[in-house]
Amino acid sequence: MSRNRDAASTGESPAGPILRFDGVGMRYGRAAEVLRDVNFDLAPGSFHFLTGPSGAGKSSLLKLIYLAERPSRGTIEMFGRDVEAVALADRPFLRRRIGVVFQEFRLLDHLTAFDNVALPLRIEGGKPESYRADVAELLAWVGLKNRMHALPPTLSGGEKQRLAIARAVVNRPDILLADEPTGNVDDAHALRILKLFVELNRLGTTVLIASHDEDLVARSGQPVLHLDKGRLRAFGRNVRQEPGA
Amino acid sequence: MSEMFDVKRWKPAPLLPRKDPRDGSLVFVVAVLCFLACLTALGALAANRAAQGWTGQLTGSATVVVRAQGSETPDAAAGRAAETLAGVKGVSEARAMEKEKAEALLEPWLGQEALELNDLPIPRLVTVDLDPEAPARAADLDKALKAAGIDATVDDHSLWIADIERSAGVARWSALAMFLLIAAAAGAVIAFATRAAMAAHRETIEVLHLSGAQPAFVVRLFQTRFAQAAALAGLFGAVGAAIIGALARLAGGGQGLTPVLPVAWIDLLAVAPTPLLAALVAAVAARVAARGLIGELA
Questions:
Q1: CA–CA distance from B120 to each of A225, B65, B96, B109, B110 (Å)?
Q2: Residue of A120, A135, A146 lying closest to B211 (CB–CB)
Q3: A93 touches chain B (CB under 8 A)
Q4: What's the average pLDDT block by block, 10 residues per block, for chain A (245 residues)?
Q5: What residues in A contact B7, CB-CB < 8 Å?
Q6: Chains A, B: CB pairs < 8 Å
Q7: What is the ipTM of this complex?
């Protein structure tokens, strides 16, 4: 069973935006909304940063995209389809089209680096002989060629980060999300990780990175979605270039 | 550190840890409860057998008190009564009790001195074994004795049977209730311990869920894991109880540990389904818990 089985039920990659937020609001339980009236489109193959101060709603917005939370109002369209209209049984297939690099990595500590990266492919039901070479190649690409057998607790912060990125992209997702991917590494590692994302984007993956590292965002020159107090204040511009936006 | 890693020989590792320190306490708790449930099951079976024995002994026999008439000696009257009763339909055997045995029965009440008086009329007893398939009624025995001109009183133990049957019923149902109570407690603890252990795997469930695993995939994973752990614990508990049961049987020889609680070898088979039942309860609990956690995430 592959993620492509669901193309009809989860939507084809559209000619228009791959992701659309239309008047989206979100709250946890009965608390006040953490996101309010969020509107934006992401074109297929685009690269954006999601910026904003702590508590602005960056992680909540990513959770809406990777289907860990649901909007309290508004519409989210992914691959040209309203995600709320996707049947519960089809949502796992939709998730397979979204790669996520979590802020706290969320690696499975009892599995080797190789097994962690292979996880999404196992879930899709692939046979080991059909993907193990790809997993090895990807681990080499992120600089973990000599750490394939290592367990996550024995890896450094930077190695864990690269491992999490490898797991997020191993099944070639249409959208790649990363939540503060450079939060635990030094500047040199941050730049190296940024280059990985840029390379993935060149291969056609739509990338959205939540970060409060303004220097990194400025150096990348990529467009920005800036959140403040749950509202989208700027879209498509670089915050550093237009700080008042 | 460079490590040798042969990609071509790589096989997917189990998605859940092979050994989890938390599993030890789960297995221990489940094993102890299964052990107690098995012991009470053996106790219930033994109590049932004891109760059957008590009522069987009483309903399968009758006692006839024979009084000699005229010039007939008590022994001759008893012999004639035994002969008469042996011919009644529903009687397997009738035996006149020897004078010495009858006196021995009376001695506690009358004393040795009274029994030494030769002119004291000591009644003779006839013990009657009834056909277990179609036992003769007391009225049939009485009728046959009257027809033979024998002055006798038939005691079919009916006075005691009702009390004994009531006592046997209490013993039987008490043992069964105790077994059901402990079995239910074992089931509840297995379910609770499984849910607690599942909560510890919440992170794994979330990662699988967010990676696009279907609920059935996740549920199957945990269901199998906890069913295996509970089956192992059930096996430990069942084997422990079977060993205790076997020791009880061996210690008591042919009658079991005591005649009150006779354990039979065949009773030990009763613990056999325990691993399966424990696995079933754990599997259902894991299934419900996993579905609940996934439902929260969805």
A1: 120, 16, 19, 14, 11
A2: A120
A3: yes
A4: 49 75 93 93 93 91 94 94 91 94 92 96 92 93 91 92 93 93 78 86 93 84 90 66 38
A5: 114, 132-133, 135-136, 148
A6: 76
A7: 0.86
